[in-house]
Amino acid sequence: MSCSGRPLIVGSETPERPFPLFVQGTVVKGFGRGSKQLGIPTANLPSDIVEHALNDIHIGVYYGWAQVDDGEVLPMVMSLGWNPFFKNEKRSGEVHIIHKFGEDFYGQNLRIAILAYVRAEKDYESLEALVDDINMDISVAVESLKREAYVRVKDAPFFVTKAK
């Protein structure tokens, strides 16, 4: 257990149906809140991906792996939902890749492997409480992805590797 009372590892020992769920799309501009307001940049999935490819999974937070173009496969957390704190009128898919990037990558191809559900979406009383929970989600993703069955997904043929 973490100091927040939430477990640091969630999900079964191996991904369970419907996971892994592999999705790809072009990174689009979102609301501009991830980096600016939260200090947690996100890569936003196109609305058609959110409405069709992700329509059958619950609203909430997930973890898995992400790759931009043919770059390194990195851990990620994804928020899928309405973002009630910000009162969104449209469902969105926002992927935070757990890595410091030097620049934005709008228009580039994003591949994600969604591996497990972390928690339900919820509203917050303050921006600080939201950021604290997102940071906890990041810790949960990092710890949960250390398990062998989850690490192996990084090598899935879905992810593109550079020619050597």
UniProtKB/TrEMBL annotation:
This protein's UniProt keywords: ATP-binding, Flavoprotein, FMN, Kinase, Metal-binding, Nucleotide-binding, Transferase, Zinc
EC number from the UniProt entry: 2.7.1.26
Entry GO terms, CC: mitochondrion
InterPro entries: Riboflavin_kinase, Riboflavin_kinase_bac/euk, Riboflavin_kinase_dom_sf
Record domain Riboflavin kinase: where: 16-146
Any one Gene Ontology BP term: riboflavin biosynthetic process
Name of this protein: Riboflavin kinase
Species: Coemansia spiralis
